[in-house]
Design brief:
The protein has 2 domains: 30-117 and 254-326, Periplasmic binding protein-like II (D-Maltodextrin-Binding Protein, domain 2); 119-253, 3-Layer(aba) Sandwich (D-Maltodextrin-Binding Protein, domain 2). 40% of the residues lie in helices and 20% in strands. The chain has 12 helices and 10 strands. It has helices spanning 2-26, 41-56, 70-79, 89-96, 150-161, 175-183, 199-207, 216-222, 224-227, 265-275, 278-287, 309-317, and strands at residues 29-34, 60-65, 84-88, 110-126, 141-143, 169-171, 189-193, 210-213, 232-236, 248-260. Strands 1, 2, 3, 4, 5, 6, 7, 8, 9 and 10 form a 10-stranded mixed sheet that branches. Helix 2 (41-56) packs antiparallel against helix 11, helix 6 (175-183) runs parallel beside helix 7 (199-207) and helix 10 (265-275) crosses helix 12. The radius of gyration is 23 Å and the shape is globular.
Length: 327
């Protein structure tokens, strides 16, 4: 009898603990953050930001999702399949205006939260390929990123403007696979649209002698930058990648943190405040050095579409003013 009396309280405590645990779990807000392909900067950022938000925001759990990249993230966030994502400013602008390639849908349920970093175009070929200019790519096999990625979308815009898109053999494969394929001579070059330095380009340079082509002169001649004003010229400094001992003149888009416009605005405010706190920024710089471009002062850089009201409240508290395109 005494044993039964002793055991019952423990059973009751276990049941109560289980009920409490279940209640706490049920009260959690579960969110999805759509990132990018393996080896890409998007995935580093989305994984790091998901971990940080899950740790810091009470009763919030954010799961990182792999993705083809920018365009897929816009579609996921717009539909609510993802709550947060990372996308290029250019893709976000075109998506809102029904101007994505072969897609006239208007993705208006997507707001920007903040600028994360600039993503330059890297046009990488093997040094022994004989390819020394963009014009030499006619008839060549070029990997442009996964289908639905921002890299592939930017490549199509650029090479179409130059009249090369339909004159090359395009491979829709991600960065890591492209590095291997180029090393095995299965492709002639790869297009990478990501922050500097990029892990996959580092890997390519470590495995083979590479050349990175300038993209600005050909783009200017073709009127590319007049047609797509959200792109800006940038220089990748000499020595950024092994064996590339010269400056590379190229162009970049702005990688943005985006959010579904129906997400609770208090939560958006709290998320922006957490990630852009000194501790949040310090953490992200440890995850990916590209995060050094992030700051409250520059949080609205490169954004040409509406900013989430929750995020806008946080930026206003910190002295930032939205322009007409961001309202």
């Amino acid at each position: 009898m005494s044993r039964t009396v002793v055991i019952v309280p423990y059973v009751l405590i276990s049941i109560l603990f289980l009920m409490l645990s279940t209640s706490v779990q049920a009260g959690k807000t579960r969110l999805a953050f759509s990132g990018g392909p393996d080896g890409g900067t998007f995935q580093y950022f989305s994984n790091g930001m998901s971990s940080r938000l899950s740790k810091d925001l009470a009763n919030v759990e954010v799961s990182n999702m792999a993705s083809a990249g920018s365009v897929e993230n816009i579609r996921r966030v717009n539909s609510g399949d993802a709550d947060f994502g990372i996308a290029y400013s250019g893709d976000t602008y075109l998506a809102r205006n029904g101007q994505l390639p072969r897609d006239t849908n208007r993705y208006t349920n997507v707001d920007a939260i903040a600028y994360l970093y600039g993503a330059p175009a890297h046009l990488v070929v093997l040094e022994k390929s004989g390819i020394t200019s963009v014009e030499d790519l006619k008839g060549k096999r070029i990997a442009v990123g996964g289908a639905g990625s921002g890299a592939a979308a930017s490549a199509q815009r650029y090479f179409t403007a130059l009249g090369l898109w339909n004159r090359m053999n395009i491979e829709f494969i991600g960065y890591s696979k492209a590095v291997s394929a180029m090393g095995d001579r299965l492709i002639d070059g790869m297009w990478v649209f990501a922050g500097v330095p990029n892990a996959s380009v580092i890997q390519a340079a470590a495995s083979n002698k590479i050349r990175i082509l300038t993209t600005v002169a050909a783009g200017t001649k073709a009127g590319f930058f007049s047609r797509y004003p959200f792109y800006s010229q940038v220089t990748i400094p000499a020595g950024t990648y092994s064996g590339v001992n010269y400056d590379i003149t190229t162009f970049q888009d702005s990688a943005l943190w985006i959010v579904n416009s129906d997400l609770d605005q208090t939560l958006v405010y709290d998320a922006a405040k957490d990630i852009f706190s000194p501790r949040g920024l310090s953490y992200l710089m440890k995850v990916k050095s590209t995060a050094k471009a992030m700051s409250i002062k520059g949080a609205l850089n490169g954004i040409v579409t509406p900013v989430s009201p929750g995020a806008a409240s946080f930026w206003a508290e910190n002295g930032l003013v939205l322009n007409d395109a961001q309202k």
